[in-house]
Amino acid sequence: LLKQYKECPNKFSIQYLRNTKTRIIPQAVEDNIIRELQIEKKLIQDKDIPLRYYNYSYVKDLLETKYNQKVSLPTIIDRAKKNDFYLKRNPRKASHDREVLTNYIGEIIQHDSSYHLWSPPAREKWYLITSLDDFSRFILYATFLKRETSWAHILALQTVILKHGSPFLYYVDSHSIFRFVQGRDSVWRKHYTLTDEADPQWKQVMHDCNIKVTYALSPQAKGKIERPYGWLQDRVIRTCVRDNVTEIRQAQGVLNQEVHRYNYK
Prior knowledge:
Layout: H1 2-7, H2 27-45, H3 56-66, H4 73-82, E1 108-116, E2 126-133, E3 139-145, H5 150-164, E4 169-172, H6 201-208, E5 212-215, H7 223-242, H8 248-264
Parallel strand pairs: 1-4, 4-5
Antiparallel strand pairs: 1-2, 2-3
Helix pairs in contact: 2-3, 7-8
């Protein structure tokens, strides 16, 4: 490099010079990119569908599975910006300082449920119950239910233990299924049972399984499971709308596919 600089300092550069032309994307691929972005735009503009931003990674996966066409994410974003299919996202909030940190797989399982309109064509909300390994972020359990019960959460625990083994600790919120809270879960105004002095059925099962339980101090402190919820919500809703999913059984099939994608891709 020093020799080249001395020979011609005015033309010297350390930038890479491409000797070949950039690869031209076939027109059929260009058309499919625009077609899928147009569908995305219609979904975002529909006020009955809880989507606010484009998901270019979803479009990338769709091009590969639907058309067998591999396109890079930067290319899709480039076409989106050039054809008015781009919305700037709000900056992410700083991570919460009360998030729990783990050192190994199975140390902590984050367990939660979310009540949401997962499939707008169904016109009803469902519960999504999930269990997530805190260290690996691997989703161990995910299922849709029309009704949330203690038994549903006990069955989720059973599935996790039989399939993946018994964890050291479960990390949950203060939902009445998981925790008795003084002043909230007693029907009597005058009572003497303090918070955590009475155990709900789910917590009794946890004690029987010799699994510890700890509670999040705030919703923000459960950010590690909220992020996968957001990822699943964004993709499941899109697929359910595109496929006109109206039954919870169909939606479960979509959920299973996306959980597999999240865990293994």
